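Interim report to the steering committee. The following record documents the input for TAP42-like protein (260 residues).
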Amino acid sequence: MNIQNQPEENRSLRDLFDSAEGFRKRIEEGSSELLTDCISLYEKCHYLTRKLCLFSKNEGIDDINTSEIKFLLIDYYIAELLDKNVTSNRSSAIMKSKNLFISFLILCDNYALLTNSDKTLFDHLNSTEMNNENYIIRESDISRREGKIQRYKREKELNENISNFLKNPSKDDNNLRKHFLELIQLAIFKSLQSIEQLDLELKMIEISKTNKQNTNNNYHEIQTEKEMHSTLKVENNPLKNGALLDKNGKVLVLPNDSVF
């Protein structure tokens, strides 16, 4: 029986994950119509990992079978896909995506997969001080400059290693395990970058909403002042007793009993 046609409740975590991976690769090639279905498959994988208690705080990365290490990436993939999904409520999508990136990083941290540099940056991004714009600028321009350079070099190396493995796949357990761990390390880098970008985007949306609200308020104030001014102009016009006026108070037609 074709895996793709099996009822979802009868499919294993491995089958669902492989199908989701297939969809994700097609999305990367331009098949955006598969986005919703791909997210749904990964969400089913997420549910099964929780149901099966696949990961535990009481174990290390060496305790996870090589074939199951890739399941650590599920929340990361969902977050990445949600960020690509176009919705009318962008703020809500940003928060869902950000929370999943955070969930992924916490899971990696439980298995000691975050370097000291990763951990420091993650703590900064997760800090309440991130609401302070000056803090973001200070961290970006000064404290993390050297870290960004090192991160860039390491990310470039990881991309090259992953690309080489995909060109020449190996079934050797050690090579396969190394490949999965490099995928996770790359996902950690991208998650940290995405959280910072999503935070900044959310700030821009909030600023835009505030500016729009202020513009609307100013418009209503101006309209109210114009109406009041027009009313006072008509009431104070000496020819108002029966004269037909335009909106600016100018006489259009005098009443029949008017005397010049």
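The chain has nine helices and two strands. The committee is asked to note this result when reviewing the revised timeline.
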